Amino acid sequence: MPRLTRALENKAWATRTQQEQPELFTTLATGQQPEILWIGCSDSRCPETTLLGLKPGDVFVHRNIANVLHPGDLSSSAVIEYAVRHLRVNHVVVCGHTCCGGIAAALGKKQLGILDPWLLPVRRLREQNLASLQTAADPALTLTELNVRDGVRTLKEKSVVLEAMEERGLQVHGLIFNVASGMLHELETGESGDAIRARLTSFKLEP
């Protein structure tokens, strides 16, 4: 069996990148200044840096099954805190995608072991929107969009995100990646400035 690094053609990639962008690796070795925090699905068909047409160092990344944002999840919370407060990213993206296995599982009723508690927020969205899902032309896409919007809502309930939105114009986006076309589509997830400020004020008033 060939060694993993040989199978992945790392040397060829590193050599080619060095030739095409001579300063890239030297710059990366000094630190990172990503513009974007990307919260996406672990699916191998959705490599964020590639589909955005960007390069190493441009995107700070958190990925999990079905791009779920659990309010109490320490892993995602730590990533968000670090990216927003310390790296000072200018954009936070929640991205779902078509043909998502996690969404398909959430639409089903099979027991999936450890995936069951993980997908619980998505299954709750399914139950809360059962009527519209039953009449939707594409229930999986509809649930994918609902899940992204729920992730954006969860982000905007975090004080670190709200403060950055108010103080320096941090932008939060919800996207859908179409696996069949390679195209990204931005969802309308707008919320009035008054609603955001009211939520921020509630955080500041907490003892």
Automatic annotation (TrEMBL):
<dbReference type="InterPro" id="IPR036874">
    <property type="entry name" value="Carbonic_anhydrase_sf"/>
</dbReference>
<dbReference type="InterPro" id="IPR001765">
    <property type="entry name" value="Carbonic_anhydrase"/>
</dbReference>
<comment type="function">
    <text>Reversible hydration of carbon dioxide.</text>
</comment>
<feature type="binding site">
    <location>
        <position position="100"/>
    </location>
    <ligand>
        <name>Zn(2+)</name>
    </ligand>
</feature>
<feature type="binding site">
    <location>
        <position position="97"/>
    </location>
    <ligand>
        <name>Zn(2+)</name>
    </ligand>
</feature>
<comment type="similarity">
    <text>Belongs to the beta-class carbonic anhydrase family.</text>
</comment>
<dbReference type="GO" id="GO:0004089">
    <property type="term" value="F:carbonate dehydratase activity"/>
</dbReference>
<keyword id="KW-0862">Zinc</keyword>
<dbReference type="GO" id="GO:0008270">
    <property type="term" value="F:zinc ion binding"/>
</dbReference>
<keyword id="KW-0479">Metal-binding</keyword>
<dbReference type="InterPro" id="IPR015892">
    <property type="entry name" value="Carbonic_anhydrase_CS"/>
</dbReference>
<keyword id="KW-0456">Lyase</keyword>
<feature type="binding site">
    <location>
        <position position="43"/>
    </location>
    <ligand>
        <name>Zn(2+)</name>
    </ligand>
</feature>
<protein>
    <recommendedName>
        <fullName>Carbonic anhydrase</fullName>
        <ecNumber>4.2.1.1</ecNumber>
    </recommendedName>
</protein>
<dbReference type="GO" id="GO:0005737">
    <property type="term" value="C:cytoplasm"/>
</dbReference>
<dbReference type="GO" id="GO:0034599">
    <property type="term" value="P:cellular response to oxidative stress"/>
</dbReference>
<feature type="binding site">
    <location>
        <position position="41"/>
    </location>
    <ligand>
        <name>Zn(2+)</name>
    </ligand>
</feature>
<dbReference type="GO" id="GO:0015976">
    <property type="term" value="P:carbon utilization"/>
</dbReference>
<dbReference type="GO" id="GO:0071244">
    <property type="term" value="P:cellular response to carbon dioxide"/>
</dbReference>
<dbReference type="Pfam" id="PF00484">
    <property type="entry name" value="Pro_CA"/>
</dbReference>
